[in-house]
Specification:
By secondary structure, this protein is an alpha/beta fold. Among the domains are: 91 residues, Tetratricopeptide repeat domain (Serine Threonine Protein Phosphatase 5, Tetratricopeptide repeat), CATH 1.25.40; 233 residues, Rossmann fold (3-Layer(aba) Sandwich), CATH 3.40.50. The longest helix is centred in the N-terminal third of the chain and has 18 residues. The chain is globular and about 75 Å long.
Length: 572
Amino acid sequence: MRCLILALTLILSALWSQPTPAQSRSQLGPLCTTETTPADQQIDACNKIIALKVFSGGQLANVYFWRAVGWNKKGDYARVIADTTEALRLKPDQALYNLRGSAYYDKGEYDIAIADFNDALRSGPQNGTIYHHRGNAFRGKGEYAKAIADYDIANRLSPNAYTLKNRGLSKQALGDLDGALADINEAIRLDPSLPSGLIDRAVVWRAKGDLDRAIADGTEAIRLARAKAPVNIMTPPGSVLISAYTQRALAYEAKGDFDGAKKDYAAALEGRPSDAGSKANQATAKVRLSLLSDAPAAPPPRNAVTGPSPFGAAPKRAESPAPAQSVATSRRVALVIGNGTYAHVKALPNPSNDARSIARSLRDIGFTVTEGIDLDRAAMQSMIREFLREAARAQIAVVYYAGHGVQVDGRNYLVPVDIQFEAGSRMTDAMMDMDTIMAGLDDQVRTNILILDACRNNPMAPKVATAGASRGIEAGIAAGSGLAAPTSLGAGATLGAGTLIAFATAPGQVALDGEGANSPFSAALSRHIGTPGIEVQQMLTRVRAEVVAATKSKQVPWSNSSLLGEVYLVEK
């Protein structure tokens, strides 16, 4: 990007030679078109130049470009996109496509970003920076082989530490920890003052189980970030410190230093996020800080949920089978919940059977299982929170839920058995938000598998249709049938090890509870989940085929995956 900015600076040198007011020539021009100008001053100067109405065409496009640079420094990506779009209308240019693509990337809209980077590469000479940025977008989509290919070209055209460290992260995501470490070490050698290289290496150290080195790298990254703010205009404001504190906190938590972890999570929340990655890091920090802050002095019995809930009265006892081994020694953990005995909406006969079947199958293949049957909101909240604490030290985490589920404004919620509608209450406050669970699980060194047999009908739809404002349902709520497909797994989450979400049926559709003891989906899942030597997505394909056949095509299971490779729940 810097070389493109230099080219535009040379082009703009002639712009100020035209007859314009003295302030424009002597003050506004340099303030608007200098990369190091503080954002507010740069935007103000460019605003005044635009207001002069003396420039048009390519010259005016250049001014819009530089105002977009100012907005980018502030992390206002909507305005970056607006200004670069206007500039492209006036005069298409490689630098403009690149800057707009980078703004879309920072918003987490990776496909649009890639389209802009493609246009940038078509509209000008080969440029390592643009290949680097397109590699970032491919990495954001989880297409790591494509990302590495772009980083290879970028490194050949213009070697730099950013390209090397990002190529290392892509290798780490694919499980090549030694290759990742080699790339990131070289990036740190090229630029020892680069905090993000140390942050990335901390992730690799944690994946390799070397928590002390992860903490040491996180500490040095924080020191460097505080000593020198990033000067690269493509670095989102505050993102470096947010990431550094979050990664060090995860290492502290994995080591058992919960006080250190809490301090770092709190520090991560002090930053102002702008890009998708920073927002995901803060979502994780918020959930994990809450989990550690509310952690009981001693863990509750594995078969019961006890103690006060941070959201209300003490939870009821949860039914579950024999105690499992301590999760401190387990690398594979699972949370299984079955809710069917609803007090105020339609009861479901099978979720308790489904949950017990899946819990038994997971235990048989070596998972440590936390199991809950017919949980009210307090018990459900407490069990989920305890599981998320335990999952911090796991390599694979599985969540299975059977019961009512609902989408509200495109977000998915799990429904406790005591759900009811009361005047003046917010409907979503009475349910469990799946986004919160996903944020609590988001980690670059863990594989997450979420299985939801939770769209058997929408118990909220009749209430929404008949209650209206008099029932106190919050304004703007749109509760739909079935569950919603996630727009992105974790809404910008890091998801370095990958996440898979499996639904009992397609988004927006209603699944069947079944005529036997189990739903068609859970019956098929329990039969296939323990099959040795079958990759998890292939296993779900077999489940899908069985469900389609059993329901005569009335129900088609569906999944959304960012898994980075083959995941086996049972080895051969």
